[in-house]
Design a protein that fits this description.
- This protein has 10 helices and 8 strands.
- It is an alpha+beta fold and 292 residues long.
- It folds into 2 domains: 93 residues, no CATH class; 145 residues, no CATH class.
- The strands form 2 sheets. Strands 3-4-8-7-6-5 form a 6-stranded antiparallel beta sheet. A two-stranded antiparallel sheet has the order 1-2.
- Helix 2 crosses helix 3, helix 2 runs antiparallel to helix 4 and helix 5 packs across helix 8.
- The chain starts with a helix and ends with a helix.
- The C terminus is likely disordered.
């Protein structure tokens, strides 16, 4: 995918009807633009070692106004515009892909929900069996589980309440763009205190592995790729951070109450956000005391 700074600078160049000098400065500032043109036989790597003043002196005499109206040089702009359009199409497809996945993993007031299961729930064995068989009776959930080949499992604590929820998926369905869109989706709806993401690629530059973690004082969300019996999988794990399940049960009761309304939802979001902010400030104070 193209970087947002490059895409924005290219859009600005197009909107401003920039000339050849401004185009060369764009190429100087964005190696990925030079890479796109290099693949089409244009070599502008030397621009990296030129100042903007050098570029102006060298190319100003050849400037003929708007680059888009210059038949010869306009071809290079068309190449970049095509790359931008293609990237936008891929991004749109990934967003659509993840939007459907929201029927498996959703969020209420920032709290993760997997097929109506939340951390702290007490659930009957038949409910989990029905989810794993993709036969819950809820058409939307069953279709989503089938479409994404998702396998849902839960770990329970000594009181038989849900301690962890996992979603296992075929890795080949989740390319780099899809996983980045998933990361953006969770980041938007989950009140995280910290997050990080690592992506790996093989010798052929094919997406090969991922490791993502987002957390706040109540929940951690882990997204990891792994191999088992010659098959590659992507696993999403939602894990509770507190030993006492009562706080989770209290939150879940409010969310599943028949009287749940916008006020309750916004109040829950505020409580979780304030808790996250307090924890973040406490960690910063500890870091300062330790000299970090």
């Amino acid at each position: 995918m193209l970087s947002e700074p490059f895409k924005q600078d290219l859009r600005n160049f197009i909107d401003s009807n920039g000339n050849i000098v401004e185009f060369m400065i764009l190429l100087k500032n964005h190696p990925e633009a030079r890479g796109i043109l290099r693949d089409q036989g244009y070599d502008f790597d030397f621009l990296e070692f030129m100042t903007e003043e050098d570029i102006f002196r060298q190319y100003q005499p050849f400037s003929k106004g708007c680059l888009a109206e210059d038949v010869e040089n306009g071809i290079m702009l068309d190449i970049l515009i095509y790359a931008l359009e293609e990237d936008n199409a891929i991004t749109g497809q990934s967003a659509t892909f993840v939007n459907g996945f929201a029927d498996v993993l959703s969020f209420k007031a920032g709290i993760p929900v997997v097929c109506d299961i939340m951390i702290g729930n007490e659930i009957e064995n038949w409910i989990l069996d029905a989810i794993q068989d993709k036969n819950t009776g809820d058409y939307t959930i069953d279709c989503a589980l089938s479409s994404y080949y998702a396998f849902i499992d839960c770990d329970f604590d000594c009181n038989e309440t849900v301690n962890e929820i996992s979603i296992q998926l075929p890795f080949e369905d989740w390319n780099y763009e899809n996983v980045k869109a998933l990361y953006a989706y969770i980041s938007k709806h989950f009140n995280y205190e910290s997050r990080n993401a690592t992506y790996s690629f093989d010798d052929d530059n094919e997406f090969s592995a991922v490791q993502i973690q987002l957390s706040n004082p109540l929940y951690s969300i882990h997204i990891e790729s792994y191999s088992y019996e010659s098959h590659d999988y992507l696993k999403i794990r939602i894990v509770r951070k507190r030993e006492d399940s009562k706080i989770y049960q209290a939150l879940n009761t409010l969310l599943t109450s028949d009287e749940t309304d916008d006020f309750v939802m916004s109040t829950l979001k505020t409580i979780i956000q304030q808790k996250t902010n307090k924890e973040h400030l406490r960690n910063k104070k500890v870091s300062r005391l330790l000299g970090f």
